[in-house]
Every structure is written in structure tokens, then in C-alpha cells.
Amino acid sequence: MIITDVEHGGLVSLPPQGGRAYTLARSKDILWADGVATGPDSAFYFTDSHIPAYLGQIAAAPEMSVLAAHRPYFAYRLKQSKL
Q1: N or C of the chain: less Cβ packing under 10 Å?
Q2: How confident is the model at residue 56 (pLDDT cuts 50, 70, 90)?
Q3: How far are the Cα atoms of 13, 22, 42, 43, 77 from residue 82, in angstroms, in the given order?
């Protein structure tokens, strides 16, 4: 199972047989990893939506101008050979 690790900026894998989770990707540049998918090339793809950069203090939806000001948003590719 692949899950996002928003506290540490990356992706984590939980082995199907159990045991400890391990880090697949981590970077200070990844602010809020989400949207994980497996592509036709068997690589993992995930987005970084930078949610904390534009949420209001009470988690209100941001205005479009605020969203536009925090562009670009990123998509990452992680080859499974790194697993």
C-alpha cells in the first residue's frame, strides 16, 4: 500500500505482509503530496497540491486569485525500480 506522508513531504510504502513502513520519496520541496496513481509504465505518479500555502486559518476554500498566486503545482514520477 502506498500512502502520502504530508508530515515529511513524500510517499511511504506499507508492505502487504505487514511490518514497518518505509520511505519511497521525501523532499523538502514536496509540501503536500497527494493524488497517488500507478501509470501504464508501472511508475508511481503523485501530485503536490501545496495545500498549506493557500488554506485560510479556518480551512476555508481559497479564492481563485490565491490559488493562481501559488502556482505552479507539481506532479512527480517515481520508478518502481527504486522500491
Answers
A1: N
A2: low
A3: 12, 12, 12, 10, 11
